[in-house]
Amino acid sequence: MSTRIVSTGSYIPEVKVSNADLESIMDTNDEWIRKRTGIESRRYEDISTARMATEAAKDACSTVDVETLDCIVVATYTPDSFIPTVANQVKANLGITRPIPSFDLNAACSGFIYAYQVAHAYIVSGIYKKVLVIGVDFNSRYMNFEDRSTSILFGDGAGALVLETSDKGTIDTIIGGEDDINESITMKNSTDYSNPFVERDTKKESYFEMKGSDVFKYAVRIMDKTIKDLLVKNNLETNDIDYVISHQANQRILDSGARSLKIDTKRMLSNVSKYGNTSSASVPILLDEANKKGLLQSGMKVILVAFGGGLTYGAVLLEWI
Ligand code: COA
């Protein structure tokens, strides 16, 4: 018993912000951003995380009867509210009235891989047959536009897929984490309001903060290790893999991964130039793009891989059906 991806979908916000647009509000320049990151533009959402997730879900469900879904799992660290969750709102927006479970999980930029594994585990254990998995993040809401080293990197978006029971498809999944001893990626909670009975720090800023070069080194090391671990565990070699669909953080991380794994850069897919880092959404957006372009043919082996705050990482090895 395994799972297969029945359909994919995505939602890209309309507001496009180029490097030149950023130049007009901070001390940066197009050449620096392109050279250090490969990013040319990013998209910013104007409404909500739930709106983006719903649009991606509708796209993924254009060929699926939503009444056949058994569960909705949303990966995000930028929900509009803690309650209701983004997944609760997607369920309502899709018009599903059956009492199916819907919940969010947060594993920073690795969230989509975690959500995929949760959905896969539910299905292979026989609990559910069909699960909608969404990755979405509204990063621009948490960017400090006075911090040029982080705000240039991120964008907003959503991607989704429907996973269902099948004889083959998903071959293996790995998720894991290491301690972030240097606090290299943080986004603090800003809702620590005053309480008449306890004294506490009521600092309300909750910007995304990052030590870029620590994260860069982690990303390069962990992508290489996770993919190699997955290949060894499944008696496969890099040459057996048709495409790697990685988290899109920085083109230099993707190039470095391709070099160390000895994968042709054409097989390390990328769209970071158009959307920047969309966190939980980057893997499913790229997967949907590859699927809609017709790149993924039956029998091809594909690796989905991601890394991020926490520190987290994860990968999925699958055969495209
Ligand atoms: N525009 C122009 N100059 C900038 C800049 C910007 N937007 N941001 C930083 N700089 C400057 C720095 O101030 C520094 O100047 P100095 O040498 O005068 O001090 C110089 O550029 C080099 O900065 P540094 O931070 O060493 O650059 P870098 O090569 O490490 O690139 C990142 C910075 C953020 C692009 C890179 O570290 C990175 O991509 N890290 C990983 C981030 C990531 O993937 N995060 C998400 C993981 S899920």
Radius of gyration: 19 Å
Count of DSSP H/I helices = 10
Helix content: 25-40%
Strand content: 25-35%
The domain tally reads 2
Oligomer: single chain
- Structural class, by secondary structure, is alpha/beta
How are the strands of the biggest sheet laid out side by side? 1-7-6-4-5
**Tally of strands:** 13
* CA-based shape: globular
Distance between the termini: 14 Å
Q: What is the fold named in CATH at topology level of the largest domain? A: Peroxisomal Thiolase, Chain A, domain 1
Q: Class of the largest domain in CATH?
A: Alpha Beta
Compressed to H and E, one letter per element, the order equals EEHHEHEHEHEHEEEEHEHHHEE
The named CATH superfamily of the largest domain: Thiolase/Chalcone synthase
Could you give the topology of this structure?
Elements: E1 2-11, E2 15-18, H1 19-23, H2 30-37, E3 41-44, H3 49-60, E4 71-75, H4 86-93, E5 102-105, H5 111-124, E6 130-138, H6 148-151, E7 156-166, E8 170-177, E9 185-187, E10 208-210, H7 212-233, E11 243-246, H8 251-261, H9 272-275, H10 282-292, E12 301-308, E13 312-319
Parallel strand pairs: 4-5, 4-6, 11-12
Antiparallel strand pairs: 1-7, 2-3, 6-7, 8-13, 9-10, 12-13
Helix pairs in contact: 3-4, 7-8
Bound molecules: coenzyme A.
